[in-house]
Each structure stands twice: as structure tokens, then as C-alpha cells.
Amino acid sequence: MNNSWIKMNDESYVPVELKGYRDGLRLIIDSDASIAEIESAIKQRLANLGNSLAGTMVRIEQQNQSLSPQDISHFYSLMQQEYGLESLNAGDEIITMSRLTSSSTEKPIQGIPADSPGASVYNEPFSTDKEKAELIRYTLRSGQMERFLEGNIIVLGDVNPGAEVTASGDIIVLGNLRGIAHAGALGNIAAAVVAMNMEPTQLRIGNVITRPPARKRRRKPMMEVARIKQGNVIVEDFEEF
After folding, report:
1. pTM surpassing 0.70?
2. Which of 95, 110, 125 is the last residue in one of the domains?
3. Do residues 44 and 120 touch, judged by C-beta distance below 8 A?
4. What is the mean pLDDT of each run of 10 residues along the chain (241 residues)?
5. β-strand 224-229 against 193-198: which pairing, if any?
6. How far apart are CA 185 and CA 147, in angstroms?
7. Do the beta carbons of residue 159 and residue 181 sit within 8 Å?
8. Whether residue 81 is found in the same domain as residue 178
9. CA–CA separation, 86 vs 241, rounded Å?
10. Which CATH number do you get for residue 27?
């Protein structure tokens, strides 16, 4: 029986997958799918990421070479015009999965594929494996942005109003969080935001957005953690992940 027929009739089958690397995103396409199916899956997948990844570089990779240059150009234009993503090496040859597997030593942060309607996020199980993290050794001031799509971000300082931090994993601020924080930026709703003082202008985990209500500042700073519980972002005293 034809493998393409089996895939197309599998209810769990999706034709696109998103992964994060240091230089940006990879959109992996199963080009056995129709152009309409691929375009629909791209829209569904990227619509859940919001605008916090605008300006991020993205490269298309195929599982085979059946897509034409015109098709690839169309998908790049779609991602740029509707979601603000920039093409990575757009003039270069499109990388195929066989080349990626044989030549790349990078370990990606797994995103989620476009799934059935309503399944727009994933809940990654807790792992004791070592994870990548980027260490920011200074306070982020208004207008500054730090983005790390390979794992977690740790800030040794404050995140001031007007500053923004985005990570595919957790965000840890060893200071005051008063700007924007987006953890689980590729859709992981199990991600968390930890800070010494939690007063963000906007807090986002996966595709859930909130702004904690105003409250009295504590006399003594205490670590707090924000995470999703029963579909809502809850801020509480930090005890453990």
C-alpha cells in the first residue's frame, strides 16, 4: 500500500512541524501533502504563536524535493506577510531532511505540528535531561529584547517596562520582572516564568496571555512562579518546578 495514502488517511497526520534553533526556526514540510493542506497547516500552526516571534528567521525544510521553487516562495511570502517571519537564506537551496540528518549536529527544541482543530499547544512532560539556557548578565531596559528559541533564558538583573524576553522554554528573572515575558514560545504550556518580583506588563505562556492584577509590593522579595493551571496563568510563591 502506498505510504502517502496511509499518511493522508491517518487522523494524527499533519504535514508541517516547527522546531527552534539558535539562528531561528525550521518549518519542516511533508511535501507529499497537497499545497492547500500545507498552507492550511502553516496558518493553523503559526496563528497560535502570536506576534512575539515577529522578525524571527525561518527556513523551510522538505522531507523530499517535490515542492517547486514557486511553492516554496509562496510559503515564505505567506509567513512574512501574515506572521512577520523573515526567510533564512531565502536565495539558497532548500534543505532536505536527508541532508539535515546527515550534516547537522544541532539539537532542536521540539515545537508542535499543526494539529486537529483546538489542539494548538502541547504539554511537554518534565524531564531530568539537561536543557540549553541563555544567560543574560545585565538588566534589560525599555526597547531591549532577548529571544532564545533553543531552551530557557536566565536574566541576572531586571526586565524593565518596555523590555521583552521570549524563550521556547522557561524564563527565570533574578530581579524584577516589569516588562513582557513569553515562555513556551513554540507552544509549550508546561513552561514557567520565575522572578524575584512579578510585576509584568504582559505575561504569556504558550498561547495564553495575561497581565497579573496590581498588588502591594512585598517588603522582602520572594521568588514567584507563573504557570498554567486549568487553562489560566497562576502566580504563586515558588517552591519547585
Report:
1. no
2. 110
3. yes
4. 48 77 85 87 79 83 80 90 78 41 42 37 49 92 92 96 95 96 90 93 90 68 89 86 62
5. antiparallel
6. 10
7. yes
8. no
9. 34
10. 3.30.750.50
